[in-house]
Antitoxin HicB
Amino acid sequence: MLAYRYILTPDDNGTFLVTFPDIPEAVAVGEDEASAGIEAADGLICALEGYFADRREVPLPSGNDGRQVVVLPALETAKVLLLNEMLAQNVKKAEMARRLDVHMPQIDRLLDLRHNTKIDFLEKAAGKLGKRLNISFS
C-alpha cells in the first residue's frame, strides 16, 4: 500500500499544519498532533481527488524514513496505480469502458476514490491494461 509521509508544523495559533512533500496540494490542520494525523488522511484523499479529476499522474511516495505517514487503504492504492497506468498507456475513460464492456458511469465510479469498488472489477481493469493486481499480507 502507498504510504505518504507528512510533516507537522506548529502554527502560531496553537494548531498544527500538515503538509505532504510528495503531494504539495495536500494540506490539513489539527488542534493537536493526534487530530492533525487524523485530518492528514482526509487532506491527502481530497488532494488525490484533484489529480483524478484533472487526469494527472499521482506522484508515488518517495519514502517515509520512519516519520509520520498516511497509509492509503488497499482499494485507494489500487485506484491510484490504475489511474497512473491508464495515463502511462494513454488509455482514456471511454477506451477503458470499451475494453471492459461497461458504461461510462461504471468507469467514473472505478476512478472515484470514495466509491467502494469491488476488487474483482479492479483486477479485471488491470488485466485490460496488461497488468496484474497483486495482493499480499506483510
